[in-house]
Amino acid sequence: MAGGAHIQTIGVSHTYKGGGAKVLGQIDLEIRPGEALALIGRSGCGKSTLLHILSGLSVPSVGKVLVDGALITEPSPSRIMMFQAPSLYPWMSVEQNVGLGLRFNGKMKEAGHRIPEVLELVELGDYAKRNVQDLSGGQQQRVALARSLALKPDVLLLDEPLSALDAFTRHALQRDIRRICKDLGITLILVTHDINEAVMMADRALVLKADPGDIDAEIAIPIPGGRLPSMQEFSDVRRQLVAAYEAAAGLTMAEAQGFISDKSLNAPAPVERLAAN
Ligand SMILES: Nc1ncnc2c1ncn2[C@@H]1O[C@H](COP(=O)(O)OP(=O)(O)OP(=O)(O)O)[C@@H](O)[C@H]1O
Ligand SMILES: [Mg+2]
């Protein structure tokens, strides 16, 4: 069983090309093998930028990222990123979608045993032949998760992948993703706006402040075993995280949620982002 990757950032700072403001200040961070880490902070503080840098999709303008001691300069199938949209091919079956990562990485020989194995893990064992269009949003996200797991990653990076799902489906996936990563020894890094999600899924949360993005607080989430929002330890950690979030963001959670629910008013439009790059 893999133990998950050990990740270090050393003096990582980032400014997008084109001369804009510094997006990340100085991030010195260590993530233990198999740890589940949440990144939280207000919109635009640099969470996705940091996640891209940790995955190797972006190279920081200053500093470096080491995974198991080796310098990261590009993405790798051992570090898989998942986004809000499951990005499945609608004309393919569940098993064909799950096999795509294997196909792109020249590992189709493994597909015969690997696909049923990962479909079992995400509890879609009976869905292999189904068309992905006939699945619910939560099931489609499970297919995307299975596709990621098929490659036996040692790091899974999630950028708010559950935010489009209803509360019940979301809770089940939070629980299952944490369990799967712990069982398989995968280091999990998760960006979320949802404090409950951080407490459900992570061993530790980093709260980022903006302009430039820096780690403002670090909060351990030492809740052994299954987690439920009704547990006392859950609400204790939740309270600490809300306070840290509010201090870092300079606004109350209620304001933050209003801010978040209408991001379009506050965050630059995609075309502006492209132009700025
Ligand atoms: N490709 C890009 N080119 C230029 N600037 C960018 C680019 N991507 C992001 N930015 C800018 O960097 C800053 C941080 O963006 P980032 O997407 O990392 O924030 P975030 O914390 O993930 O926000 P959100 O919670 O809204 O997803 C923002 O000011 C954003 O406009
Ligand atoms: Mg983001």
Automatic annotation (TrEMBL):
Pfam families listed in its UniProt record: ABC_tran (PF00005)
SUPFAM superfamilies (alphabetical): P-loop containing nucleoside triphosphate hydrolases
Keywords assigned by UniProt, alphabetized: ATP-binding, Nucleotide-binding, Transport
Domain ABC transporter: 7-235
Family of the protein in this entry: Belongs to the ABC transporter superfamily.
Organism ancestry: Bacteria, Pseudomonadati, Pseudomonadota, Alphaproteobacteria, Hyphomicrobiales
InterPro entries with a match to the protein in the record: AAA+_ATPase, ABC_SmlMolc_Importer, ABC_transporter-like_ATP-bd, ABC_transporter-like_CS, P-loop_NTPase
Domain of life: Bacteria
GO molecular function terms listed in the Swiss-Prot or TrEMBL record: ATP binding
Protein name as it appears in the record: ABC transporter ATP-binding protein
SMART domains, per database record: AAA (SM00382)
Residues that span the membrane, as ranges: none
